[in-house]
Design goal:
By secondary structure, this protein is mainly α. It contains 5 helices and no strands.
C-alpha cells in the first residue's frame, strides 16, 4: 500500500475532496512486524531500530499521507512537498512514544538471544 500511496491519494477522485484537515482529525501510523529481529539484532545495536525504522520509513509514510499535492511528479517536487510537512511537524518527545523490546516468543529467539 505504501508504494501506491501517492497514486491512491492524488489520482483517486474519491479521496480528492475528503483527504484534508477538514475531514481527517487524526492519523496514526503503526509499525508492527509479525516476526522477530530475525538476525538483525547486531544491525540494530549499531544503527538503532529507531533511526532505521522511524527516521527512514515511518517519517516517509507520514510525509506522503500529510503532504499537499506536489507541483508535478518530479522527484524534486515530491521532495519539496514532503519537506514542507516535516518542517511543520512538532519534535517527537519520549513522552509521545511507545518503545517495545523483542522477547522470546515460542521458538523465535529474543532480541538479545
Amino acid at each position: 500500500l505504501v508504494q501506491n500511496m501517492m497514486m491512491l491519494r492524488f489520482s483517486n477522485i474519491a479521496f480528492a475532496g475528503i483527504w484534508n484537515n477538514k475531514s481527517i482529525a487524526n492519523v496514526q501510523i503503526t509499525f508492527k512486524e509479525d516476526f522477530g529481529t530475525e538476525g538483525r539484532g547486531g544491525y540494530f545495536d549499531k544503527s538503532g531500530i529507531i533511526r532505521d525504522i522511524l527516521q527512514n520509513h515511518l517519517l516517509q509514510v507520514m510525509a506522503i499521507v500529510a503532504m499537499e499535492p506536489p507541483a508535478d511528479n518530479s522527484p524534486e517536487a515530491i521532495r519539496d512537498a514532503k519537506t514542507k510537512v516535516l518542517e511543520c511537524t512538532d519534535e517527537i518527545t519520549l513522552e509521545d512514544t511507545v518503545i517495545g523490546q523483542y522477547v522470546r516468543k515460542g521458538s523465535n529467539p529474543g532480541y538479545k538471544e
